[in-house]
Amino acid sequence: MPRAIVITGASRGLGRALAVEYAAPGVALALIGRDAAALGAVARLAEAKGARVRIGRIDVRDRDALSAFLVETDEADATDCLIASAGVTMVTPRAGAVEDLTRAQDLFDVNLNGMMNTLAPLAPRMRARRQGQIALFGSIAAFAPPPDSPSYAASKAAIVAFALATRALYHADGVSVSVVCPGFVDTDMTGSFDSAKPFLLSAEDAARRIRRGLARRRAVIAFPRRLYYAARFQQLLPEPLRRRILLAFRATARP
Ligand SMILES: NC(=O)c1ccc[n+]([C@@H]2O[C@H](COP(=O)([O-])OP(=O)(O)OC[C@H]3O[C@@H](n4cnc5c(N)ncnc54)[C@H](OP(=O)(O)O)[C@@H]3O)[C@@H](O)[C@H]2O)c1
Hints:
By secondary structure, the chain is an alpha/beta fold. The chain has 9 helices and 11 strands. The protein binds NADP nicotinamide-adenine-dinucleotide phosphate. NADP nicotinamide-adenine-dinucleotide phosphate binds near residues 15, 85 and 188. It comes from Roseiarcus fermentans. One of its GO terms (cellular component) is membrane.
């Protein structure tokens, strides 16, 4: 059971649900996000369950501020679980439209550089202690990229590759890296677009599944399994059939 847990994207959605899931007496939580009021509300819930909480109101793109906060947090309570949940999505403005380049680059900045900014200050410290685990957030979209979210799917595929490589690299140092690949979870992110959302899960259910997967030190924590296996299976199909399946997951952004 981890005792010192850092969570990015803790103000809402999966990060928030994970903060509440792990909150218990004897647990130190460091919660990171940009929305101070929302982080405060999560902190109060976690404290009511007996956890000690530090809040970092930080944009994960701000490498220096994030690094300073993470090192300070690690000095206070040696981090044994790092959960990098912060992320954004994007759906094309209308069917067939091309993504806005600036927004796409911003998305990569949060999802990829933000994740690397989170990992960089803590991973060497965890490796030196030869202890701890790290959860990076991919998505089932990495395996079955939805046609209207190419940049999001690409950012998540990059995280899957990064996590699996890092897992192999850190193994000898006793640090376990997992990649979390949810299907559809009922959060603000999933609420920002309309599409088919099979097997939609609550954030609380997803948080329990993630916790179980991390306790077992799984390489890939993908759920629901039916959707994950379907996504992996379609990769083996002939391209015309694969294309038709992916087009069943067309999405439109909600205003
Ligand atoms: N929901 C799903 O169905 C689903 C499926 C597959 C994968 N995922 C992945 O799971 C993770 C969590 O998703 P979610 O559904 O919980 O999303 P969400 O409800 O939209 O919450 C996103 C979280 O990320 C934080 N965040 C976004 N940009 C940030 C930035 N620049 N700096 C710091 N924090 C930032 C937000 O906090 P602030 O707004 O306070 O900054 C918020 O706490 C993401 O990586 C997502 O890609 C989600």
